[in-house]
Design brief:
Layout lengths: L3 H8 L5 E4 L6 H10 L6 E4 L3 H10 L4 E5 L3 H8 L8 E4 L7 H9 L3 E5 L3 H9 L3 H8 L3 E3 L3 H8 L2
Parallel strand pairs: 1-2, 2-3, 3-4, 4-5, 5-6
């Protein structure tokens, strides 16, 4: 199994990674590794709280941060966080999101990620893959899915 350093070096200029730093792992150590491999332009750090997002921003304000934004209250917290919104991706959860949340995030210049894995992927199988188009039209910019081929097929039509 490759080390994180090896993955960062190998994917640089080839892929964009979202790094999910688990509890007990030093946030600073991971960010230092991202910085030392010049991978910052190709990495977003996943955060599960606004406090953690602020920590990432304080360590390296140039890193992309994935921050939770499931409702308008979360959007308001983001507005008041002091984090540069140009460096944010908003994870809107794993169920259909209110289009008003997407509109508010887009108005701030923030791209959105919807977790279609599991429940929404199953719904697409049951209702038809055009369901992915509906999610995109409602405001999801990025779909995290176990069915990437079907999503690409729908969104490129």
């Amino acid at each position: 199994m490759p080390t994180l350093k090896q993955v960062l070096e190998w994917t640089k200029d080839k892929a964009f990674l979202t790094l999910d730093i688990k509890r007990g792992v030093s946030l600073k150590a991971v960010i230092d590794l991202v910085n030392s491999t010049d991978s910052a332009p190709y990495v977003a750090i996943i955060t599960y709280s606004h406090e953690r997002a602020k920590e990432v921003f304080q360590i390296n304000p140039d890193l992309m941060i994935s921050i939770s934004a499931r409702n308008i209250a979360d959007v308001e917290r983001i507005k008041n966080s002091g984090i540069n919104t140009e460096k944010l991706l908003a994870f809107t959860g794993v169920s259909e999101t209110n289009p008003e949340v997407y509109k508010a995030l887009h108005k701030m210049g923030i791209y959105t990620i919807l977790g279609a894995l599991g429940n929404l992927d199953r719904r697409a199988i049951a209702r038809g893959d055009q369901f992915y188009k509906e999610l995109y039209k409602n405001g999801a910019d990025i779909l995290a899915t176990d069915r990437p081929i079907e999503v690409v097929k729908q969104l490129s039509e």
